[in-house]
Amino acid sequence: LAMIVMKFGGTSVESAAAIERVASIVRERLDRQPVVVVSAMGKTTNRLLALAEKACAGERAEAARLLEELAAYTLGEARQVCRAEDWAPLSGFIESHFQELSAFLDELAGLGEFPAQYVDLISSYGERLSSRIVATAFKHFGMNGVHVDAREVIITDRRHTQAAPLYSRSYAKLDERVKPLAQQGQVVVMGGFIGSTQDGFTTTLGRGGSDFSASIVGAGIGADEIQIWTDVDGMLTCDPRILPGGHRVKMISFAEAAELAYFGAKVLHPATVVPAVEKNIPVLILNSRNADNPGTRIVAEAVPCANPVKSIACKRNITIVNIQSLRMLMAHGFLKRIFDVFDRFQTPVDMVTTSEVSVSLTIDNTTHLDEICAELRKIADVSTDNTQSLVCLVGDNIRDTPGLGARAFGALRDINISMITQGASKLNLSLIVLDSDLQRAVKALHDEFFATLDEKVFDA
Hints:
Helix 2 packs parallel to helix 4, helix 2 packs antiparallel against helix 5 and helix 3 (60-79) runs antiparallel to helix 4 (84-111). By secondary structure, this protein is of the alpha/beta class. It is globular. The strands form three sheets. The chain has an eight-stranded mixed beta sheet, with helices on both faces. Strands 12-13-11-14-16-15 form a six-stranded antiparallel beta sheet. A two-stranded antiparallel sheet has the order 5-6. 39% of the residues lie in helices and 20% in strands.
């Protein structure tokens, strides 16, 4: 029998009303044996980390007040979606978790710092609570909800805050624990984003981790499809925060979706779909506030399309680093030395262009920019510019469509472009423009490439 994994993000479970909406979406799909993965309620993770920082900084009373507020909110929303007979065990579960959190805050106040293990421990409570609340709420809404602690089935390495799953171990546990429950007609609810090491220490999978969890669960139980329920109607032809009015993309390949996500589309975190790609499981992006919309379907193979471009992604606040060799000619080993510096400071590079004596590259994480520049200045002249944005045209056909560059540059004839790359990926043409020109650039490109639409692929 077919099974599906349904993942709901923080806004989808932020309140009693939102949880009721999730329950009605899941109830309509009971025949497909759903396994549900949820994020923490609303902004819970951020709130937990903020109050832990306060405890570390010696503001223990303020941390306690914020914890009290969070507990009241959690209990208040949970109470409204819980049967009378389930309330004593659920409220006991919630209260004991907040007592544990309070004890950890005491420890942090004593330490005066916030080690990575504690970051994982404290941020895990959001999902541990939301998954238990949602499982209990499903009973209230007439379903056979059952809670599985994700830390018992998602086994990871020890890299706290950025843990990587140990796939074969996780798959074996999911197959043994979760699959039989779903097959018996129980609706399993798990927290996303969290796992544990083989010796039982709580870990987290990094930001975007709940999508990743859903993908691992789907691969582990051999699901038919993985549904990511968000608050948008799927992927659009342009970023709605930059330019509203884009068209829904009905179908897109994994490679294109990952490229879009990497270049700023917030709908999906690129690493998240790797397990799904490997097992060839389609991923759907759906809207929990508009459940009848068919959303975007992401599939393993390329999707034939009359439009060369599927979507336009953007990243604001990009920093360009210009590196000019001190010698007139590029010495061999020069590029290696440059990239070694970025590697040492764990700073990913997005775009690179090189000439005989200089290299320009872009980064969007500037945490270590000063140290990076200091290192690079030992071997080169370095300047930086942080007023730029990246615009990226993504589509399977980009490299093979003659005249595409001419169309793009024609559309941008009035806009200054400071960097261009194409070639490393068959799927994208990337440009750097001033932040202040970003919206105008995206609009011009959108008008150029989406004036007519292939209706098999786009929603007109």
